[in-house]
Design a protein that fits this description.
Layout lengths: L1 E3 L3 H10 L5 E2 L1 E2 L7 E8 L2 E10 L10 E7 L3 H16 L5 E2 L1 H8 L9 E2 L1 H9 L16 H5 L4 E8 H8 L21
């Protein structure tokens, strides 16, 4: 999934890339119930980042636009990707956000750090477990828009994430309520 969350950091990356969708996540189901990336660990602190399991219904994605892609992989490739994610999840405290790597990307300098990724670098690393979805660019140079150019990925949806979630998750509230709205209530006649 590529997305535009509208955070200040996302907007800053957009100024550099001149692209609309600047965050990348990888999911293992159409409902986006199991989705991973590298980003902020705490929604109130953009400087504390690392490996995260994302919630597509969180306030971070409240107004997000997205593009959802699908990739066919063999069962062997699927297991390799899942195992790599599981290992990372078991040791998530080791992983940090690769802010230095982002500067390297901007200056076209290869900077790879152990246990450190930015979102598109992480997704490219996971996808490199599949022969059919390998990018021609080293993971430390991958930007979100590179995934749009990958022939093995097929665009399934483009638009508001809230709309996609509602269409895939029946009987579920689309997104968490934010701000003062959570304190309002309906007055019954």
């Amino acid at each position: 999934m590529l997305s535009k969350t509208g955070t200040l950091f996302s907007k800053a990356i957009g100024v550099y890339t001149r692209k609309d969708l600047n965050h990348t996540s990888i999911a293992f189901d159409e409902q986006l119930l199991e989705m991973y990336s590298f980003g902020r660990k705490n929604k109130h602190n953009p400087f504390n980042g690392g490996f995260i399991r994302e919630d597509a219904t969180s306030t971070l994605f409240n107004r997000a636009r997205c593009a959802i892609y699908k990739c066919q992989v063999s069962s062997y490739e699927y297991k390799r990707m899942r195992n790599k994610i599981r290992r990372m999840e078991q040791q998530k405290e080791l992983y940090k956000y690769n802010l230095i790597g982002l500067f390297g990307l901007a200056m076209n300098i290869k900077i790879e750090r152990e246990h450190a990724f930015f979102c598109s670098q992480f997704v490219a690393t996971i996808m490199n477990e599949c022969q059919s979805s390998k990018l021609q660019v080293a993971p430390c140079f991958v930007q979100p828009h590179h995934f749009e150019q990958l022939p093995s990925l097929k665009l399934m949806y483009k638009g508001q994430l809230k709309t996609y979630i509602c269409s895939k998750r029946e009987n579920e509230k689309p997104l968490q309520v934010i701000g003062w709205e959570k304190f309002t209530y309906q007055i019954q006649p």
